[in-house]
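Supplementary Methods. Inverse-folding protocol.

Structures were first reduced to a discrete structure-token string of length 244. This string, shown here, constituted the complete conditioning input.
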């Protein structure tokens, strides 16, 4: 049985992704900052018939929680097959380049960028024990520099000095990570689930969490000949490959 860890998995897209992967027969660790809340979600899912789901405490801004989570996964599973770095925050709005505080930048980057690096680096040796390791970093179309410079892009006017750049940095890190792991059976990609109606955006997006999670699962449970180091977007309807 393959094992997956999803950070920020106690609600919204992360939770729906956990449900879909559970239905496909994977053992799912629900990463959650608040273990009690995570265990409540776990209990609810088990009562609804989901199997092989376990809440695990992990705060991507606190290395000690990541290390403890790794110990649990290593003891119970011996390896990790899939890491989905889903945890993220938007930060306070408005986000202007001229007057947003350094503290606001640091807070968002600590979760969206440095948090992904912390989790990935700590779990990398367990992923290397898998025959088919996968790392999916959940990004946003707002992280694409090419699209942000295109006046014809549907979200051209949606500019954020903090959130967008945090995802741009994540995309850049993913490219390097995929390159460094290219001679191993890893598939490392960034996945944009699209503009989805969640608590994250006050349910303003047109997409559903079900569709977003399906897209993430599609580009995570990939075959040996699948691409690595790519940017897949649910808002790009033709090729699904987004420009960087």
């Amino acid at each position: 049985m393959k094992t997956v860890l999803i950070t920020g998995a106690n609600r919204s897209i992360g939770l729906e992704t956990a449900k879909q992967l559970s239905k496909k027969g994977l053992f799912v660790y629900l990463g959650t900052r608040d273990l009690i809340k995570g265990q409540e979600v776990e209990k609810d899912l088990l009562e609804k018939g989901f199997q092989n789901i376990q809440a695990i405490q992990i705060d991507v801004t606190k290395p000690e929680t990541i290390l403890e989570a790794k110990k649990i996964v290593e003891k119970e599973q011996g390896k990790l097959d899939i890491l989905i770095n889903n945890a993220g925050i938007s930060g306070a709005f408005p986000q202007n380049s001229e007057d947003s505080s350094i503290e606001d930048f640091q807070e968002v980057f600590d979760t969206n960028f440095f948090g992904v690096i912390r989790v990935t680096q700590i779990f990398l040796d367990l992923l290397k024990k898998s025959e088919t390791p996968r790392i999916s970093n959940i990004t946003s179309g707002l992280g694409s520099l090419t699209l942000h410079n295109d006046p014809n892009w549907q979200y051209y006017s949606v500019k954020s000095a903090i959130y967008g750049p945090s995802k741009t940095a994540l995309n850049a890190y993913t490219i390097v990570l995929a390159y460094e792991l290219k001679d191993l059976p890893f598939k490392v990609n960034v996945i944009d689930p699209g503009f989805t109606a969640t608590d994250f955006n006050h349910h303003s997006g047109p997409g559903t969490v079900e569709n977003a999670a399906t897209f993430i699962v599609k580009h995570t449970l990939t075959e040996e000949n699948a691409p690595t180091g790519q940017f897949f977007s649910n808002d790009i309807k033709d090729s699904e490959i987004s420009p960087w």
